[in-house]
Amino acid sequence: xxxxQKVIAACLGSVxxxxxxxxxxxxxxxxxxxxIVPVIFALITVRRKSIWGVYAALxxxxxxxxxxxLIWLFLLGMASxxxxxxxxxxxxxxxxxxxxxxxxxxxxxxxxxHIEFKISVSVFVLFSALxxxxxxxxxxxxxxxx
Length: 146
Known about the structure:
Helix content: over 70%
Number of strands: 0
Largest sheet: none
């Protein structure tokens, strides 16, 4: 496993751990467990040294960086797409998720294996969809207050 793949795996692990901690702190553990399922799948592909693992990790990092940016914009009073109450611990965890996502994107850019364009795009789209669907499911009625 290359240094960049190790960084990607560590960043995915950091996102997983941070989201679990957010779930514990906020009392929404089940919701956050649902949200990390695609992250776990991406981590598995990277750890197995799959040639398309980095293409699975990239949309995960982009998605979580986007969500963290929306949260930060809300906290700074610049946008209200995301609303809620955030404890100091949750804010620190959003920073950790954001930094992990940025470092992960940089590592992905440095370690792009050359595979067929159709395959890389397909993997990117698949993992993007998995992450969006996991987020959507986590906000559905059975999981809202769990």
